Q: What sequence folds into this?
């Protein structure tokens, strides 16, 4: 029975976003794993983690530098290997890089539920590579945390069921509470919030 | 326009064959095969009988886990698409090749055209469903085969550049029909000797029909309808055959088990058969276009339009031998079936939606 959450971190801004959520979940006693995909020059130094008061990553996939395709491919293969061996109860995706794209696809194909933090953001400019990542993560997530009514509206307009969306603002505490509730509901087999195993 | 036309599996090769003539009339095509289901032995004949040009680029990527396969395709397609520098990328259906090509193109800011857009099973446990959803949302053009597909896309907020073009497979069937009217088109099947209207053509390939109970069910059904003077020609997917052999079950000697047929042979067999028995949605549609009675070896079908109404020539029989025998007696009685089949082979024509022409025209 899987029990831990897997946080997927690519670039440093992802970790800054994740830190309050990780701290709040720790206070609530939820087991967590931090997976750093390890793009080039985005190393998580001890000092960086210490400043954010979170542990060092449990797993470093070390995908290094490369094209979008190369980085996404390396992250996909690494994440699949990790999660086939030890499937998490929920994959939590921060941000909108190749790591987020890879995590969303692998979770969906392994039928692991995923949550997307800062969901529904759009530039409406497809020439921005991150726009692709954001779209795919939102399409495939089971739980979407939004920070604005515009983001929520964007998700509903693309057919995301309203019961998957949580308007929480940027607060890590709120996100942690929602994750704890969602996990409890899923465990209880509540079809309202945990029906999809996408 | 310079188009990168990306395929990987056999069904995608057939769809590309349907589209290729119309595309090449208006556009420059670079034909790319990821090799997802590459079969060296079959490839030559397969391309020849479809009239398909050999691929310009063969990436040779098959096997591996889902992430390994998709990842390797992503890397190879990114490199290939950079080198080819097309104006747009055409993808088909819902395989890992479809997903990888759509993602690679989107990241290179190349517009994507999705053929067979908007199909949904509403079951996200199926990897194909993930591939469909992501590809539809990344595509600039969604070419939908049916009204239902258009409605599925609209429900996900996709309404611009969504085009109801019809089924590209219908165009290919219409073209190929004229080449298989003579009984000589049956020559290569089951060792030869098949006569128009004096055999039943069957295919079994679906995963649910590989379970032990299901195998016993359809083997029993085929035995019940096969006769010495009207044998069943069963084209069996290798995986299904393996499962049947492993179970130690074999149909009677009135059932001829053969390898899966190529596209043209399969269409010839369907046109000249007294009736078709199948669990394939594709074969079910082709049989309907050809006017050949069809017994569907499933409890339900997503192609309901072929099974409804008084004049319907398709019947859902599941794995029920009694129902299958009754349906055959009604739709293809042995005393009338040969004349009926001969008339179809001579006169049947297929009106097309012009899907391939519409797609080629809309890509501008």
A:
């Amino acid at each position: 029975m899987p029990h831990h959450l897997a946080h997927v971190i690519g670039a440093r801004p992802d970790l800054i976003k994740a830190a309050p959520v990780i701290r709040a979940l720790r206070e609530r006693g939820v087991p967590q794993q931090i997976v750093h995909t390890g793009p080039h020059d985005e190393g998580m130094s001890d000092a960086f983690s210490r400043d954010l008061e979170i542990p060092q990553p449990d797993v470093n996939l070390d995908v290094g530098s490369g094209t979008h395709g190369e980085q996404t491919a390396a992250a996909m293969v690494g994440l699949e290997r990790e999660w086939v061996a030890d499937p998490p109860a929920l994959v939590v995706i921060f941000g909108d890089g190749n790591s987020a794209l890879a995590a969303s696809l692998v979770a969906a194909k392994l039928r692991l539920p995923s949550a997307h933090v800062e969901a529904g953001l759009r530039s409406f400019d497809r020439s921005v590579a991150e726009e692709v990542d954001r779209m795919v993560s939102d399409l495939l997530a089971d739980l979407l945390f939004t920070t604005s009514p515009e983001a929520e509206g964007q998700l509903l307009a693309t057919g995301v069921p309203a019961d998957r969306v949580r308007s929480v603002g940027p607060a890590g505490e709120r996100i942690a509470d929602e994750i704890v509730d969602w996990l409890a509901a899923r465990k209880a087999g509540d079809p309202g919030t945990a029906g999809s195993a996408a | 326009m310079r188009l990168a036309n990306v395929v990987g599996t056999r069904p995608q090769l057939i769809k590309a064959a349907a589209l290729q003539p119309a595309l090449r009339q208006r556009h420059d095509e670079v034909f790319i095969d990821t090799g997802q289901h590459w079969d060296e032995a079959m490839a030559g004949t397969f391309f020849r009988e479809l009239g398909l040009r050999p691929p310009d680029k063969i990436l040779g990527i098959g096997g591996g886990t889902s992430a390994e396969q998709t990842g390797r395709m992503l890397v190879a397609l990114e490199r290939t698409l950079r080198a080819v520098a097309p104006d747009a990328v055409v993808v088909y259906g819902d395989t890992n090749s479809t997903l990888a090509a759509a993602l690679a193109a989107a990241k290179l800011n190349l517009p994507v055209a999705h053929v067979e857009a908007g199909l949904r099973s509403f079951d996200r446990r199926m990897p194909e469903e993930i591939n469909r959803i992501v590809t539809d949302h990344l595509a600039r053009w969604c070419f939908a085969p049916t009204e239902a597909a258009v409605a599925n896309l609209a429900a996900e907020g996709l309404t611009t550049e969504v085009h109801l073009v019809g089924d590209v497979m219908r165009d290919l069937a219409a073209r190929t029909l004229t080449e298989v009217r003579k009984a000589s088109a049956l020559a290569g099947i089951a060792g030869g000797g098949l006569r128009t209207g004096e055999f039943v053509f069957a295919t079994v390939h679906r995963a649910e029909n590989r379970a032990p109970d299901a195998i016993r069910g359809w083997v029993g059904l085929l035995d019940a309808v096969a006769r010495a003077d009207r044998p069943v020609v069963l084209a069996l997917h290798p995986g299904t055959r393996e499962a049947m052999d492993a179970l130690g079950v074999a149909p009677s000697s009135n059932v001829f088990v053969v390898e899966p047929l190529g596209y043209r042979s399969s269409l010839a067999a369907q046109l000249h058969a007294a009736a078709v028995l199948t669990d394939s949605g594709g074969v079910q549609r082709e049989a309907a276009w050809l006017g050949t009675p069809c017994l569907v070896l499933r409890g339900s079908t997503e192609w309901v339009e072929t099974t409804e109404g008084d004049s319907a020539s398709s019947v859902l029989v599941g794995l029920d031998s009694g129902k299958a025998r009754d349906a055959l007696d009604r739709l293809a009685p042995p005393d009338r079936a040969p004349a009926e089949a001969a008339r179809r082979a001579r006169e049947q024509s297929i009106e097309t939606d012009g899907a391939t022409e519409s797609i080629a025209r809309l890509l501008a």
Observations:
- The domain at 2-164 of chain B is CATH 3.40.50.2000 (Rossmann fold).
